[in-house]
Design brief:
Strand content: 15-25%
Mean pLDDT: 94
Order of helices and strands: EHEHEHEEHEHHEHHEHHEHEEEEHE
Number of strands: 14
Radius of gyration: 22 Å
Shape: elongated
Largest sheet: 8 strands, mixed
Number of helices: 12
Strand order of the largest sheet: 3-2-1-4-7-6-8-5
């Protein structure tokens, strides 16, 4: 099955040869690599052109800078393969990456997006290592769907996507937020199915120049706004009673984002006795037993507690109370 690898880059001469070499080493040979230089000031394009001069599968274009989303949509328009694989200039694919992912699309009941497990390289903070562990814990569609509202569950450079599904969705949306997370949320709402190959097939390089660290579209505020918008729309929360589990900073910010989009905030719940009875955002903080309703329509519960291990305990208690994940509650990061 043919794959087009989409690789936009700008000022990536320090790393891009490693990324290209990882493509040259792929065991799946039926691919094209479409590389788009988005107005670099360095010699990255020249380095790539020299490295792949003898391989007609590699095509390189240069143009004036227009930004990442414009580059991605231009690459999608340039492509013609049924499967599109993403790669960033600072990341490295294992030799079996394309082969393992293509195999999932060739199986019965193929998904719309196939990712893989990852390892981060560079100076890795404990927080980033925890993020890596969380990413690698989500393999099946059900696991990815359950934590879809926590954070982006699929690193964009690891994704292989059905081109027809991406085109049907209208491609990437250009807005003041994370375009990849927005794509997964829009895809999920359109019925996409996701999965990961349960092997580490990508090395993601962490460095200070990475867009996720330098561009305001990837700030935590942008992620929260995006999640709140999609959740309110997907679960029809405009005018519906909502309770936020967690009366700390994360919970208060989440409550504001939901209320700003039309949800009817009726209460916070929390396990800390010192918080019970206090007013936040004009509503009371109640003990968690407040959610044990014997009759009437339950409020929708959004869990926004950042303490490690809290999500598992919250899920357990809400299921004990009879709440259905997705239809009646969601866990935010």
């Amino acid at each position: 099955m043919t794959v087009d690898v989409l690789l936009p880059f700008r000022d990536a001469s320090e790393w891009i040869e490693d990324a290209v070499r990882s493509l040259l080493a792929q065991t799946h040979r039926d691919f094209r690599a479409l590389l788009l230089d988005d107005g670099s000031d360095d010699d990255g394009a020249e380095r790539v052109t020299r490295a792949v001069a003898a391989d007609p599968r590699f095509l390189v274009r240069r143009r004036e800078p227009r930004g990442l989303v414009a580059s991605l949509n231009e690459l999608v328009a340039w492509s013609n393969a049924p499967l599109l694989a993403r790669l960033d200039a600072d990341d490295i694919a294992a030799p079996e990456r394309l082969e393992r992912q293509v195999a999932r699309f060739a199986a019965a009941s193929p998904p719309d997006v196939v990712s893989c497990r990852v390892s981060f390289r560079g100076t890795i903070s404990p927080r980033l290592r925890r993020y890596e562990t969380w990413l690698n814990s989500l393999v099946t569609h059900e696991e990815i769907e359950a934590d879809l509202w926590v954070e982006s569950p699929i690193p964009h450079p690891t994704a292989m996507i059905r081109r027809d599904a991406l085109l049907a969705l209208g491609g990437y949306r250009d807005f003041d937020g994370p375009e990849d997370y927005d794509l997964w949320l829009r895809g999920w709402r359109a019925g996409w199915r996701f999965e990961k190959v349960p092997e580490v097939l990508m090395e993601l390089r962490d460095h200070e120049a990475r867009l996720t660290k330098t561009d305001s579209r990837y700030l935590s505020r942008a992620f929260l706004d995006l999640k709140a918008t999609h959740l309110v729309e997907a679960r029809e929360l405009v005018g519906r009673d909502v309770v936020v589990w967690g009366a700390g900073r994360d919970g208060v910010r989440t409550a504001k984002a939901l209320r700003d989009r039309g949800a009817n905030l009726v209460a916070f719940v929390d396990v800390a006795p010192t918080k019970i009875g206090r007013q936040r955002r004009g509503v009371p903080t109640e003990p968690i037993e407040f959610l044990r309703l014997e009759h009437g329509r339950r409020p929708y519960v959004v869990a926004a507690v950042g303490v490690r291990g809290a999500r598992a305990l919250i899920r357990e208690r809400l299921r004990e109370y009879g709440y259905s994940e997705g239809a009646e509650f969601a866990c935010f990061g």
